[in-house]
Write a structure and sequence with these properties.
single chain, 0% helix, 62 residues, mainly beta
Length: 62
Amino acid sequence: MTNDPGFTCSCCGAHHDELPMNYSATAPYVWDPSFADDADSTLASDQCVIKAQHYFVKVTPR
């Protein structure tokens, strides 16, 4: 354990002294790798579509 409350940013690679204001995931919890072969499903860096029924958009705060 460390006394440093900061973090290293996965976007810019810089160390920031404050606590992170958001967290990121590569995919929504409901995404299953088997969906990758489904024509109605997509997983990209900024969006996810599951079986043309569930839509997720990833937003990066600035």
